[in-house]
Amino acid sequence: MTLVLVFAGALVGAPLRYLTDRAMQIKHDTVFPWGTLTVNVAGCLVLGGLSGAGLSLPAPWLALVGTGFCGALTTYSTFSYETFRLVEQRTYFYAVVNIVVSVVAGLGAALVGYAVVHSFAG
Amino acid sequence: MTRVEPGVVRVRTRRTQLIRTHGAALAVIAVGGGLGSIARYGVGRLLPTRPGEFPWGTFAINVLGCFLIGVLMVLISEVWSAHRLVRPFLGVGVLGGFTTFSTYANETRALLTPGSAGTALLYLFGTLLCALLAVLAGVWLTRVITARPA
């Protein structure tokens, strides 16, 4: 049952990552990977909120929205590959900014999501 | 009977093709993402994250996924002329669904307590460094192995 929920969540999360990336590419005509940054930070925020709910969140919801949806919405492989491409194209500034902003904003979003939901649930 | 201008037909055909292309890409991304996520869930069951400890499962998933994207991208952009749905399925779908940034950030957050702050920093920077090196290793190894003799 858990496998089905993980699969179902990912069935929505992965295409949403692709669509966000396409939309961001049209909006910002730069080499900076806005799409991946957006989905990663959004996923960190949502998963932070789910973690903040703690035991008041039923396990099936964590499998569906946490492991499935957030896990598939966010990506480490594309983040790393895009950073590598920025280095290969000698746009070192963008590469460093991508690393710093992704990590700081991702961790920050996780902290905010956790704190907000925890203050309500706790 | 109304006559349809040839230009109108062309635009309609193009639009249908666009929907068809995106529809196929979205479908393979969804299924690939589902399969990748199930693989991630499986690894997570084998190497579960214990409170206060280094999250080896997620670390292994992300580093392996980064190595594989390096291999894949060289294969499909420099070695073979792959089918147009190979990258959406394997790259965006399977590897995108397999690796995770949200779990990485939230495990780091959970480790940010006085007793395990060192582990949090080691995990945060260790994953980052190893993931980037894994992409490099994947790209480099695939280029070396597939290089044609001069």
List keywords for this structure.
heterodimer; A: 122 residues; mainly alpha; 5 helices; 84% helix; 0% strand; B: 150 residues; 79% helix
Give a structural overview.
- The complex is a heterodimer of chains A (122) and B (150).
- Chain A is mainly alpha-helical and 122 residues long.
- Chain A is built from five helices and no strands.
- Chain A has helices spanning 2-27, 34-53, 59-73, 77-88, 92-121.
- Chain B is mostly helical.
- In chain B, 79% of the residues lie in helices and 0% in strands.
- Chain B has helices at residues 6-46, 56-79, 86-98, 102-111, 117-146.
- In chain B, helix 1 packs parallel to helix 3 (86-98) and helix 2 packs antiparallel against helix 3 (86-98).
- The interface between A and B is large, with 48 and 51 residues.
Number of strands of chain A: 0
How far apart the termini of chain A lie comes to: 29 Å
Strand content of chain A: under 5%
- Distinct helical segment count of chain A: 5
Q: pLDDT under 50 segments of chain A (min length 5)?
A: none
| Topology pattern of chain A, helix = H, strand = E | HHHHH
- Shape of chain A from CA axes? globular
Compute the CA-based radius of gyration of chain A.
Answer: 16 Å
What is the SS-derived class of chain A? mainly alpha
Main sheet of chain A?
none
Main β sheet profile of chain B? none
Please report the two chains with the greatest interface, counting residues with C-beta closer than 8 angstroms to the partner's C-beta. A-B, 48 and 51 residues
Q: Give the tally of β-strands of chain B.
A: 0
Taking pLDDT < 50 over at least 5 consecutive residues as the criterion, the unreliable ranges of chain B are: none
- What would you call the structural class of chain B? mainly alpha
Overall mean confidence score, pLDDT of chain B: 91
Strand content of chain B: under 5%
